[in-house]
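On clarity, I found the account of how folds are encoded harder to follow than it need be. What matters is that the chain and its backbone geometry are given together, residue for residue. The format is easy to grasp once an entry is in front of the reader. For illustration, here is how one protein appears when written out as sequence plus structure tokens.
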Amino acid sequence: MFWGRKKNGLLPPKGIPDYVGRYLVVNLGKNPDWVWNLKAVMRSKTEDKDAFDVRVFDPAQVSEKGLKIRDYHSLDEHPDLILYEGWFNKRTGEVKIEAKEK
């Protein structure tokens, strides 16, 4: 078992992965100060051990609502908190992220 990784492939919230952060700043033109304060939850993709589904959220919005995000599925009941969703591959650096509609 890897540190912080659960048996179900879900990871606890942490700072957004570098690949995702760079994509938001460079490709989508988002403010880097804002981007690097966001958090992400991820789950492993079954078909590729280097690929992860990712959901990006603002921890301040979560705190305002008094919620606790534990893993990727914690946001299933609160889709309004998901700012960006997609996947990335840490081996190839490929990123596919889309803004979620509010």
Summary: The chain is about 20% helix and 30% strand. Residues 14-99 form one domain.
